[in-house]
């Protein structure tokens, strides 16, 4: 009997202990129940401390600090080395939905590896969490928008399909835990202008709202099951998006059944009350009320720090805060952040998964698939040995940032395009000349052609000595020749043997200037991660110190940045202001130069770029001389993310605030291209850019044009392989390339009439969906499953595509719906993409295609925003581009819809 009582006593003790364990620590309970239990144990002050993107630790409840702000647009960003995929617009150009799933999965794997490593070291900093503010699925309605590069283009169906696959790849398929949480943004009706986004009120028509601006968000939430979403800066119909009950309650939660959490864009709730913004409320407390009650759960910024005062003033109830906190902690529970790591599959991801061979291979494939051939008179692919002397000309031939795009991580040992071309075309002599600035008045990295490691040396670049501590004393650990000073070392140490220590670099050699006179230079440090480090640099020319600067840890009494001994250049949203200085040369030719760079920390810090204001005429003459002595010119032109991007301090001809005021190739580059073609040499143009360019002169005079976007870490080799034929280009444009800004309505006009391939009735330079190949494809047997379809029923469309050429290649089969005039007040699109598939075919190979169109794909939106399937005679087109007057009759199928059927929002 004693043994039986003993067993019963032990069981009772275990049950008692279990009963005393807080519910939020029990992994067997539902995540929302655990979250509610945890939230209800907090004081009001503790709750308020959880409502910002940088949530505080609560030691008494074993709640660690957590930062919701993390970036993964095309690779894990701002947290050190990571595999860097092409910028989002380049990924869209692949038209490869399964590949986007692979990319998302690879990014999430690296995110988990970084998070686990960070937690092992007690690091809960920004950019090391598991809630990622990606993808950007706003519609790229106007090529002037600087952030269009972050999107998947101008079409809701393409954007939504790619976005769903990317989201599913990020979030994983485990039944209990998210791999990471995706946050599609910016909800909603957001696509510039950047310089007025904090006060801009968009008033879209009901048709455009539901036809263009919301469908891809619906796909992300309903089909992709994204567990988070970010509201945008702009107002919609008079209400700031982060305070819009229409968007956040009616559409998001009621219509779409969203159960996740909403985060504000950074500072967006400040825009409710601060000067020169929406100013819909008088102060922070009232702004907090509007945002919280509308459904914004967490605030990137400091405004929600006033939530306690809002409760005390009776503007909100503590229960309103609880509702949002339960959503936020439910997400953290579903990430496994409150469970033993051994029980969370993704928490076992080793740090070696970062930049693994498998992920590198996906980045290489994505870069190759993103290449879009816009013109080719037969010069490409470049035949081996055909050209013995090649001139690589243009500012993008050796520009690191034009590989990276924005919202990027730190690439491993990136190869620049001119170097990839040299390494690939080994039988040719390849000479380089920058040729032109991106735009007149804009700094350009000092080109390697002006730098030499010693006097009289013909080798390009500077001698670089790398020291394994933040000191320029002792013996350097590494000595090499660096082509220039243009490095992204954000959060990393360039010496892999010492990954977590500070370091120093000294560059020495000569700087060759084309003429006597005063030259303007700039040292840029790049993005910084809260600048919790010391960083300094000194430049000496001809033995004299021409500038020195020091960045100090934030919070120091002297301020964060000192330049030439003077304090007063503040940090600005993770971006150090560049240090500008002048040098007056008393002669042309070589001048000795020494640049010292010292950084106290590896984990927190930036890179360094030495730029100057280039003398445009000298650059042009050097390029002409280089091209004149060559058999072939490869002109690498376009834009750079240091010109187009998010709310930037840029005001130059054609550029304002990160946006563009013109879509033409900048005049300095146009002048260079005209001079090159005038030489009578064959010219191949390679474009690196994040938005459409009106390259009319190139289309008329160049032998070939290759669109390469901002192609990521593998982009340079992908360009070289495409030029030589090792990669047969199969990418397609996700945006329309217009001929002129005159083809576009006002940038601030959000009406879709006359915009994008769906509503533009003019003749584009290159149309949405366009792209060439080194082989040819043909289509046959296009037919629909019925000629008479009852409204609301699905339609199956089938077709055969054949590689009719002599080379293996990829084709992007595109299905367009051509609606009739159904009495919809002329609101129906001219054509609408409703299916696509990228297929690889060997010569002579045929692939059978099958597309299923459901009621949503067959529907249209009326003037009131209602979506329905309407009766009428419809056409389906299947081909490798949009339908045109030259499309073959055999690529169409006709059918009639009988009756009508409503389709839910």
Automatic annotation (TrEMBL):
Residues 555-577 are annotated as: Disordered. GO terms for molecular function: alpha-L-arabinofuranosidase activity; xylan 1,4-beta-xylosidase activity. Residues 559-577 have a biased composition (Polar residues). Keywords: Hydrolase, Signal. Residues 457-628 form the PA14 domain. It comes from the Bacteria. Belongs to the glycosyl hydrolase 3 family. One of its GO terms (biological process) is arabinan catabolic process. This is Glycoside hydrolase family 3 protein. Residues 1-19 form the signal peptide. The keyword Iron does not apply.
């Amino acid at each position: 009997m004693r043994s039986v009582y003993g067993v019963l006593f032990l069981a009772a003790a275990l049950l008692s202990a279990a009963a005393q364990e807080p519910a939020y620590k029990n992994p067997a309970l539902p995540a929302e129940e655990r979250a509610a239990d945890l939230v209800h144990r907090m004081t009001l002050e503790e709750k308020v401390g959880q409502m910002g993107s940088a949530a505080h630790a609560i030691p008494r409840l074993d709640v660690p600090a957590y930062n919701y702000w993390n970036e993964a647009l095309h690779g894990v960003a701002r947290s050190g080395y990571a595999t860097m995929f092409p910028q989002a617009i380049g990924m869209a150009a692949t038209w490869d939905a399964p590949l986007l799933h692979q990319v998302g999965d690879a990014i999430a794997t690296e995110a988990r590896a970084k998070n686990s490593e960070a937690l092992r070291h007690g690091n809960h900093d920004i950019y090391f969490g598991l809630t990622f503010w990606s993808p950007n699925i706003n519609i790229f309605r106007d090529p002037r928008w600087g952030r269009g590069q972050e999107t998947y283009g101008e079409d809701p169906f393409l954007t939504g399909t790619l976005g769903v696959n990317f989201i599913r790849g990020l979030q994983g398929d485990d039944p209990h835990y998210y791999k990471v949480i995706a946050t599609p943004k910016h909800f909603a009706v957001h696509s510039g202008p950047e310089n007025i986004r904090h006060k801009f009120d968009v008033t879209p028509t009901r048709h455009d709202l539901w036809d263009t601006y919301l469908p891809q968000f619906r796909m992300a939430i309903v089909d992709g099951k994204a567990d988070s979403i970010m509201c945008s800066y702009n107002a919609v119909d008079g209400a700031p998006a982060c305070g819009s009950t229409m968007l956040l309650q009616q559409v998001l939660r009621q219509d779409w059944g969203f159960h996740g959490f909403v985060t504000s864009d950074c500072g967006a709730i400040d825009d409710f009350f601060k000067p020169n913004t929406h100013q819909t409320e008088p102060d922070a407390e009232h702004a907090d009320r509007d945002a919280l009650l509308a459904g914004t759960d967490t605030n990137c910024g400091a405004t929600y720090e006033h939530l306690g005062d809002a409760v005390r003033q009776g503007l909100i109830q503590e229960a309103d805060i609880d509702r949002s906190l339960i959503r936020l902690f439910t997400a953290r529970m579903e990430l496994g952040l409150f469970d033993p790591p051994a029980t969370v599959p993704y928490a076992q991801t080793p740090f070696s998964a970062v930049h693994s061979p498998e992920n590198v291979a996906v980045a290489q494939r994505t870069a190759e698939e993103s290449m879009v051939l816009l013109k080719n008179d037969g010069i490409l692919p470049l035949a081996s040995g055909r050209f013995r002397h090649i001139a690589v000309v243009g500012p993008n031939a050796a520009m690191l940032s034009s590989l990276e795009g924005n919202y990027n991580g730190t690439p491993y040992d990136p190869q620049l395009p001119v170097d990839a071309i040299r390494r690939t075309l080994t039988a040719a002599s390849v000479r380089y000349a920058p040729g032109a600035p991106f735009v007149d008045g804009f700094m350009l990295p000092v080109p390697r052609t002006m730098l030499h490691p010693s006097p009289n040396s013909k080798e390009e670049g500077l001698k670089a000595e790398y020291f394994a501590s933040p000191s320029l004393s002792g013996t350097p650990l590494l000595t090499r020749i660096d082509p220039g000073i243009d490095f992204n070392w954000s959060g990393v140490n360039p010496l892999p043997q010492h990954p977590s220590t500070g370091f120093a670099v000294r560059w020495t050699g000569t700087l060759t200037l084309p003429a006597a006179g005063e030259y303007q230079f700039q040292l840029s440090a790049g993005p910084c991660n809260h600048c919790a480090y010391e960083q300094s640099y000194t430049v000496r020319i001809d033995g004299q110190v021409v500038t020195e600067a020091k960045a100090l840890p934030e919070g120091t009494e002297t301020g964060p940045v000192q330049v030439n001994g003077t304090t007063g250049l503040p940090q600005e949203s993770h971006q150090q202001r560049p240090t500008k200085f002048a040098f007056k040369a008393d002669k042309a030719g070589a001048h000795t130069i020494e640049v010292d760079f010292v950084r106290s920390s590896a984990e927190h810090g930036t890179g360094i770029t030495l730029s100057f204001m280039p003398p445009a005429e000298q650059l042009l003459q050097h390029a002409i001389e280089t091209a004149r002595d060559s058999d072939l010119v490869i002109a690498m032109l376009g834009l750079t993310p240091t010109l187009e991007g998010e709310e930037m301090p840029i005001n130059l001809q054609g550029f304002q605030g990160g946006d563009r005021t013109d879509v033409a190739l900048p005049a300095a580059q146009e002048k260079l291209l005209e001079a090159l073609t005038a030489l009578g040499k064959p010219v191949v143009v390679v474009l690196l850019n994040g938005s459409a360019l009106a390259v009319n002169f190139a289309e008329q005079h160049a032998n070939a044009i290759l669109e390469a976007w901002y192609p990521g870490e593998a982009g340079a080799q992908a360009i070289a392989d495409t030029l030589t034929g090792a990669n047969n280009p199969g990418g397609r444009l996700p945006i329309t390339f217009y001929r002129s800004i005159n083809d576009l309505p006002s940038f601030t006009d959000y009406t879709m009439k006359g915009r994008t391939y769906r509503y533009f009735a003019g003749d584009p330079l290159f149309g949405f969906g366009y792209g060439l190949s080194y082989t040819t494809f043909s289509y046959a047997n296009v037919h629909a499953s019925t000629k008479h379809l009852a409204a609301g029923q699905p339609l199956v469309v089938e077709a055969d595509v054949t590689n009719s050429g002599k080379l293996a290649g990829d084709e992007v089969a595109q299905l367009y719906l051509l609606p009739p005039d159904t009495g919809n007040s002329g609101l129906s699109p001219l054509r609408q993409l409703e299916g696509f598939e990228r297929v690889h075919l060997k010569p002579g190979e045929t692939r059978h295609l099958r597309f299923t169109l459901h009621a949503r794909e067959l529907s249209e939106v009326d003037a009131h925003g209602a979506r329905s399937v309407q009766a009428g005679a419809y056409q389906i087109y299947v081909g490798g581009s949009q339908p045109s007057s030259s499309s073959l009759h055999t690529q169409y199928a006709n059918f009639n819809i009988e009756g009508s059927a409503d389709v839910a929002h």
